[in-house]
Amino acid sequence: MSKTAIISANDVDVFYGEKQALNKINLDIPENKVTSLIGPSGCGKSTFLRSINRMNDLVDICRVEGSITIKGQDIYAPEVDVVALRAKVGMVFQKPNPFPKSIYENVAYGPKIHGLAKSKTDMDEIVEWSLIKAGLWKEVKDRLDQPGTGLSGGQQQRLCIARTIAVKPQVVLMDEPCSALDPIATAIIEELIDELRSNFTIVIVTHSMQQAARVSQRTAFFHLGELVESGPTKSIFTSPEDERTQNYIMGRIG
Ligand SMILES: Nc1ncnc2c1ncn2[C@@H]1O[C@H](COP(=O)(O)OP(=O)(O)OP(=O)(O)O)[C@@H](O)[C@H]1O
């Protein structure tokens, strides 16, 4: 594991039943940077992302082998509390999915179940901090009691980001967080991702190479369940070492 890596995947294999979706993945993910996972459809990007917070545990037929460590701790060790792990490694999904509750309650939910606020004042502060960090505070501060589902798609996605960061995770996983958004909402989220990396380590799956180039410092290219290469985003896009990466970047595959 390199010195600056917060997440380290070592020989990770993932199977769905008999079918192997990931083959011997070795990847170090550095702290306080944005790492994007790119590659053609079905190459295993989401599977890898979901193995970082054990979301794959929810799929009965899914089996993970090898090891993934976060700050040196094996997240698949038997003593790991998966609920606590998912607070430490939060996730933002493709489609904004706020709870059918108020804006305030959407953000307060995580801190409440993890006992992070001792008083209403504490909770108010956490909610405000999270909404500010998610770039949503100004737009919603006068209507915190209104339903989160009443916001626009882009605002809902920022609400989901606020909800994720409210429990102060170390890592935020994002699975195509802009794919349901228009270009303006996408640009706002991309700017936000750049700001968030000072507090969090971000791993993002994206189909858009332009997005990977805009938001990430590191890029990992997956193909048919293999990690073909990874490195600084600029090098991956301007001088990839492997022909498969080159072909993907030139639009010849995927
Ligand atoms: N729940 C599941 N059950 C069975 N097979 C699955 C499941 N989820 C994914 N797979 C298979 O694992 C492989 C990798 O899928 P995955 O969704 O990780 O790829 P991806 O690169 O994220 O694709 P996309 O870009 O289309 O989202 C595919 O062959 C897919 O069919």
**Large-scale geometry:** globular
Strand content range:
25-35%
Strands, count? 10
User: What is the third-level CATH name, the topology?
Assistant: Rossmann fold
Return residue spans where pLDDT drops below 50 for at least 5 consecutive residues.
none
CATH homologous superfamily name? P-loop containing nucleotide triphosphate hydrolases
Question: Any ligands, ions or cofactors bound here, and which?
Answer: adenosine-5'-triphosphate
The order of strands across the largest sheet is 6-7-8-3-9-10
Distance between the termini: 31 Å
Residue-averaged pLDDT: 96
Main β-sheet: number of strands, strand sense, barrel status?
Answer: 6 strands, mixed
Radius of gyration: 18 Å
- Please give the share of residues in helix: 25-40%
In short, what is this structure?
The chain has 254 residues and is of the alpha/beta class.
Protein architecture, described:
Keywords: ATP-binding, Nucleotide-binding, Phosphate transport, Transport. This is Phosphate import ATP-binding protein PstB. InterPro entries: AAA+_ATPase, ABC_transporter-like_ATP-bd, ABC_transporter-like_CS, P-loop_NTPase, PstB-like. Residues 7-249 form the ABC transporter domain. It is a single chain. The two termini are 31 Å apart. The longest helix is centred in the middle third of the chain and has 14 residues, at 120-133. With 254 residues, the protein is an alpha/beta fold. The model has no long low-confidence stretch (mean pLDDT 96). It contains 10 helices and 10 strands. Helix 6 (153-165) packs parallel to helix 7 (183-196). The chain has a single domain (5-249), classed as 3-Layer(aba) Sandwich (Rossmann fold). The strands form 2 sheets. A 6-stranded mixed β-sheet has the order 6-7-8-3-9-10, sandwiched between helices. Strands 2-1-4-5 form a 4-stranded antiparallel β-sheet, covered by helices on one side. Residues 16, 21, 39, 41-47, 59 line the site of adenosine-5'-triphosphate.
